[in-house]
Amino acid sequence: MSGFAPDHSGAEVRVSPNFGPRANGVRPDMIVLHYTGMETGAAAEARLCDPASEVSSHYLVHEDGRIVQMVRESDRAWHAGKSSWRGVTDINSRSVGIEIVNPGHEFGYREFPKIQILAVIELCRGIAHRHGVKPEMILGHSDVAPGRKVDPGEKFPWRRLARHGIGHFVEPARLRGGAISSLGDSGAPVEELQSMLALYGYGVEITGVFDRQTEIAVAAFQRHFRPRQVDGIADRATVETLRRLLASLSSSLV
Predict the structure, then answer these.
(1) Global confidence as pTM
(2) pLDDT of 56-78, one tens digit each?
(3) Catalytic residue positions, numbered
(4) Which of these, 27, 133, 216, 217, has the minimum number of CB atoms within 10 Å of its CB?
(5) Cα dihedral across residues 63, 65, 68, 74: positive or negative
(6) From CA 25, how far away is CA 20, in angstroms rounded?
(7) pLDDT digits (tens, 9 = 90+) for 192-221
């Protein structure tokens, strides 16, 4: 493919060869946000367009707000890897992927510039409108691949996006002492926690035992919805925030 008209007005086009058809003709109903985790935006853009890398994304948002589209929204980009959400495992077929330039935890994780986030908001707004993506289906890579990925990370301003109608977010409960459940615990509180995480979408098996998988899912939840303290411990603030989130989701469906 030598080129295509961008789906997002104003986006530059740089075609990546790393794409294919969406499985069974499905349409995207998710947006997955990533950080690039590389030292420069130019290096990230080059890698996403390198056939040897076997990775790609529909969009790349540079720190100055410039948007580059590399794969058409109608096609399947290779950005999510091994992942799942609400029982769906082929996230690439169900999503539009957005890479946001930031060096990430390995190369000096930093705050996202305001102009960059405004560009992300406008991009997400357009994608959501075109494909009918619900707010709760705008997620981070760490949500769909907990433990394996931590991006876009605890500094990503999900609250700011939500103020603009992008994503699902509630005000986190106030931090206070006392773990309800942590690694090695078992019983009804753990089963309730696992049930709530699974109901929201995280890939947690409901066993009543707080295992490593549960700890990883709790940390992923905290990174997105309660980022002030990411430790994988289901403290009172974490559980209360999760309950608020589910209640907010239920009320929006009424």
Answers:
(1) 0.96
(2) 999 999 999 999 999 999 999 99
(3) 99
(4) 27
(5) positive
(6) 11
(7) 999 999 999 999 999 999 999 999 999 999
